[in-house]
Design goal:
Radius of gyration: 17 Å
Number of domains: 1
Largest sheet: 4 strands, parallel
Number of strands: 8
Strand order of the largest sheet: 3-4-5-8
CATH topology: Rossmann fold
Order of helices and strands: HEEHEHEHEEHEHEH
Mean pLDDT: 90
Structural class: alpha/beta
CATH superfamily: NAD(P)-binding Rossmann-like Domain
Distance between the termini: 28 Å
Strand content: 5-15%
Number of helices: 7
């Protein structure tokens, strides 16, 4: 997986490490981290410090033998970085990772995208997310799960006042919005990703939003 140190990615790593169905987690990172030390199943974690400029080849090498791939990487505040950097991280790196995962033998891939992702959108953020989805699909992995959450709820406020206000007010209006726009805790989203990958399914492309996340979580409890 790539994006292991982000809010969703770190929750997903912990989900996979704790799962008895997961034998190994290979996380590609820019720099070494101890954030998972002592987590249940931490001995299954294999951290690979790689050059993201050579991500495709690094993924093909490090991921050999892994059957599932997860890309939760992304720019947290795209409006505060140059467009080239936003595009490089969300599209170019995602595509390189997906191609490397396919070369490594992955049969399924999960991509953290966004509700409303659309190649034709007039919104720059949603257009880039749509391009990221298209790039990952083009890699040719058998089963592709595009996770499209709306507001991500975190224990800590990550991005200052805007994030604080979003997490405060959006849930108040959520009942008035279509279900796909409902907020979700990053821990629950990560659990849904893990469940989706473990249950497998027929080859194809699936775009999942909040109602699908709820069904996945409920299925594991039933």
């Amino acid at each position: 997986m790539v994006g292991a140190t982000g809010a969703v990615g770190s929750s997903l790593v912990r989900e996979l490490l704790a799962s008895p169905r997961c034998d190994r987690v290979t996380a590609l990172v820019r720099r070494a981290t101890t954030m998972f030390s002592g987590a249940p199943g931490w001995e299954k974690l294999q951290l690979e410090v790689v050059d993201f400029g050579d991500l495709e080849r690094a993924t093909a090498r490090a991921g050999a033998g892994d059957d599932s791939a997860f890309c939760t990487m992304g720019v947290g505040q795209p409006r505060k970085v140059p467009f080239d950097e936003f595009h490089r991280v969300d599209v170019e790196y995602a595509g390189a990772f997906a191609r490397g995962a396919r070369a490594a033998g992955a049969r399924q891939i999960t991509l953290l995208s966004s509700v409303g992702a659309d190649l034709e959108s007039r919104n720059r953020y949603l257009r880039v997310k749509g391009e990221a989805e298209a790039t990952v699909i083009a890699a040719g992995i058998e089963r592709v799960s595009l996770f499209r959450p709306s507001l991500l709820v975190t224990a800590q406020i990550r991005y200052g006042l805007q994030d604080r206000l979003s997490q405060l007010f959006v849930p108040m209006f959520a009942p008035l919005l279509p279900a796909r726009f409902h907020q979700i805790r990053v821990e629950d989203l990560a659990r849904a990703m893990r469940i989706d990958a473990e249950r497998g399914g027929a080859p194809g492309i699936a775009a999942l939003t909040y109602p699908d996340f709820v069904k996945l979580l409920a299925a594991e409890l039933s």
